[in-house]
Design goal:
Belongs to the GMC oxidoreductase family. InterPro entries: FAD/NAD-bd_sf, GMC_OxRdtase, GMC_OxRdtase_N. It holds the Pfam family GMC_oxred_N. Keywords: FAD, Flavoprotein. By secondary structure, this protein is an alpha/beta fold. It contains 6 helices and 7 strands. The strands form 3 sheets. A 3-stranded mixed sheet has the order 5-6-7. A two-stranded parallel sheet has the order 1-2. It is globular. The relative contact order is 0.13.
């Protein structure tokens, strides 16, 4: 079979690109992924289902990681570089955090010469891809394909709750919405796994 466009990798960028390209009914699109594609939530393995994979647990013997390694400099030891080998890519194995860049990150791009990449210019596109199940308003999308949700505080594990309480005790501000432009402090991350 012949395709107009072939997208290699069904990670965050590849899946979005293939989806957008396929909106043109005159364009045939093939999306290739080396890892598995699970048909529904019930079929997801535990490590992907709940999105709690962070740190060493996502790279030790996992079938959903390419097992890449690298070094930060010529003086450092070899270290794991987690890269997802599954539909969803690395976003599927790294805790499924749906955290936007800070406005200052966008402004650096403007300083480097591209004023079309300002926070103000990019915000409509960020809103277009999400449906935030917890918050609305000017900084949260309501009609996008990616569902965004935060774990409620009463669902945190004991170690997560201890960290949260320690941060508050040390004077860190409580922040329940890390996708606001001026967000800082301690609170649950937005995730793109509403069922996990």
């Amino acid at each position: 079979m012949k395709y107009d466009k072939i997208v290699i990798g069904a990670g965050s960028a590849g899946a979005v690109l293939a989806s957008r390209l396929s909106e043109d009914s005159n364009c045939s699109v093939l999306l290739l992924e080396a890892g598995p594609d699970y048909p529904n939530f019930e079929n997801l393995p535990f490590d992907l289902k709940h999105g709690w994979g962070t740190g060493p647990d996502i790279v030790v013997g996992g079938t959903h990681d390419w097992q890449f390694t690298g070094t930060a400099s010529k003086f450092s030891e070899n270290m794991p570089v987690p890269r997802g080998k599954v539909t969803g890519g690395t976003s599927a194995i790294n805790g499924q955090v749906f955290l936007r860049p800070l406005p200052e990150d966008f402004e650096r791009w403007v300083e480097w010469g591209n004023d079309r990449w300002s926070f103000k210019e990019c915000l409509p596109y960020l809103l277009k891809i999400e449906t935030d199940l917890d918050y609305g308003g000017d900084f949260h999308g309501q009609d996008g394909p990616i569902l965004v949700k935060r774990h409620p505080l009463n669902s945190l594990t004991d170690d997560q709750l201890a960290f949260y309480e320690a941060c508050k005790y040390l004077g860190y501000k409580e922040n329940m919405d890390h996708n606001l432009p001026d967000a800082t402090g301690v609170g649950p991350y937005p995730l793109n796994n509403p069922d996990g």
